[in-house]
């Protein structure tokens, strides 16, 4: 039985990754900032992180924060992983981090480079945006009677459990370097996705498309965050909405 550490193991992606690995028979240690017995702040590292990594052969790094700190957390994790003799470091990244000059994407790319230069066997999987991200985005945008959307932008959302299955598969194999990108089954306009959300949530809103400025917006508009040649996901946004609203028991 292999010992595998999953950082961010209580998050949207981490939970199904942990479930997949445990079902496959591995001992999985779940790292998060507040969940015992491995409550660890990766930015600080220290004895708690060393204890969590002791004897582990593989680390699946799912922990991330759009509020910052990812590069510091990666440095701490890599240093501790070297001390512990970890053989395989698996990182979850985003399609387009090398093409879209968005601050969070730049951070993800910097972490990729840290992992590549770590001296540890590594695998990086890039995926398009999860359905959950769009759901929360549209939920916030539809709070007012007028729903503003960035003009001429498309997206390719993917089902998180499918990404988790692929990440768990990669974690159980040998270091693979850059794995093939993973995208959702459909490249769709932001407007069509927003209208699907409104219909499923039972909300009537005026949709207004707003042209934006800046290099990041231009890169998104050009499709730098899409992977049409790797549309391997099967779950659609409508599939996700049906499941999400059935679970919540409410039309939101």
TrEMBL record:
InterPro entries, alphabetized: ComplexI_NDUFA9_subunit (IPR051207), NAD(P)-bd_dom (IPR016040), NAD(P)-bd_dom_sf (IPR036291)
GO MF term list: protein-containing complex binding
Domain spans labelled NAD(P)-binding: 8-132
Domain of life of the native organism: Bacteria
Name of the protein in its database record: NAD(P)-binding domain-containing protein
């Amino acid at each position: 039985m292999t010992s595998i550490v999953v950082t961010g193991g209580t998050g949207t992606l981490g939970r199904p990754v942990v479930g997949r690995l445990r079902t496959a028979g591995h001992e999985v240690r779940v790292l998060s900032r507040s969940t015992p017995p491995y409550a660890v702040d990766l930015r600080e590292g220290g004895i708690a992180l060393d204890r969590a990594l002791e004897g582990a052969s593989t680390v699946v790094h799912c922990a991330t924060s759009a509020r910052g700190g990812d590069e510091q957390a990666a440095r701490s994790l890599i240093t501790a992983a070297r001390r512990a003799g970890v053989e395989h470091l698996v990182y979850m990244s985003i399609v387009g981090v090398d093409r879209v000059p968005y601050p969070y994407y730049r951070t993800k790319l910097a972490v990729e480079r840290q992992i590549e230069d770590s001296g540890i066997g590594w695998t990086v999987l890039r995926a398009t945006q999860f359905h959950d991200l769009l759901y929360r985005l549209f939920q916030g945008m539809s709070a007012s009677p007028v729903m503003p959307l960035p003009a001429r932008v498309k997206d390719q959302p993917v089902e998180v459990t499918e990404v988790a299955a692929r990440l768990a598969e990669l974690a159980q194999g040998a270091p693979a370097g850059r794995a093939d990108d993973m995208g959702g089954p459909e490249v769709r306009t932001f407007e069509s996705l927003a209208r699907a959300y409104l219909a499923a949530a039972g909300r009537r809103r005026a949709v207004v498309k707003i042209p934006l400025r800046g290099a990041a917006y231009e890169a998104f508009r050009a499709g730098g965050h899409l992977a049409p040649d790797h549309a391997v996901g099967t779950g659609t946004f409508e599939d996700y909405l049906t499941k999400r609203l059935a679970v919540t028991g409410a039309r939101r």
